[in-house]
């Protein structure tokens, strides 16, 4: 039998528990007078900022950031289709990083009860070192799957010598109509919120595992 070209795809994924979380929250105030709204925003923001400063000093919050206050106005419509007097708004966004998810749960429950505070979403992440090593491992495993498939196909044809010709991320081996898919890739974990009927923490955070996956295409020649 003459040489046979075999083209295969190898995939692999790893599920790993998040190591850190970034909580996003917004503090917002509104009113009829622009100056009063800005002052109210400052009053609502101060205790949250002071708490974060204290937590960072204590080491329970590795880092946090806040944006400048955004101020804007809108003129709402009433039921009769008439424009009403302007309503002024002011808001500021915070991003807070946690490595202890129990501390995050307690903090989320406390901050969510503050006036003007809206707790947004939680990003669940891996540390850079873990992410890099996991991406390396999952890519290696994907290549191994491709090699095993090529050897299986060759064996079914009665061939035993398999040599790699090309290896690439999905979509880069040959021209395809579909857009290339990056490999490896990491899917962010989601957060599930559960209200606590009794005491603290008022918010229980249950992150799903982060999925790191890789896919490759490879071309081999079998003899």
UniProtKB/TrEMBL annotation:
<protein>
    <submittedName>
        <fullName>SIMPL domain-containing protein</fullName>
    </submittedName>
</protein>
<dbReference type="InterPro" id="IPR007497">
    <property type="entry name" value="SIMPL/DUF541"/>
</dbReference>
<dbReference type="Pfam" id="PF04402">
    <property type="entry name" value="SIMPL"/>
</dbReference>
């Amino acid at each position: 039998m003459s040489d046979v070209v075999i083209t295969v795809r190898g995939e692999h994924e790893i599920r790993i528990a998040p190591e850190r979380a970034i909580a996003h929250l917004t503090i917002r105030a509104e009113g009829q007078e622009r100056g009063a709204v800005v002052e109210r925003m400052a009053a609502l923001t101060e205790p949250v900022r002071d708490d974060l400063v204290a937590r960072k000093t204590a080491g329970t919050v590795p880092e946090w950031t806040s944006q400048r206050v955004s101020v804007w106005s809108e003129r709402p419509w009433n039921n009769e289709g008439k424009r009403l007097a302007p309503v002024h708004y002011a808001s500021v966004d915070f991003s807070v990083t946690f490595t202890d998810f129990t501390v995050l749960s307690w903090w989320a429950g406390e901050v969510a009860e503050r006036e003007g505070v809206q707790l947004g979403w939680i990003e669940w992440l891996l540390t850079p070192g873990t992410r890099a090593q996991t991406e390396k491992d999952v890519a290696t495993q994907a290549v191994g799957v491709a090699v095993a498939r090529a050897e299986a196909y060759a064996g079914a044809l009665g061939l035993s010598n398999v040599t790699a010709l090309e290896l690439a991320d999905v979509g880069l081996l040959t021209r395809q109509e579909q857009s290339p898919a990056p490999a490896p890739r990491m899917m962010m974990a989601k957060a599930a919120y559960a209200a606590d009927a009794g005491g603290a923490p008022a918010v229980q955070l249950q992150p799903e595992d982060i999925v790191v996956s890789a896919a490759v295409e490879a071309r081999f020649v079998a003899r």
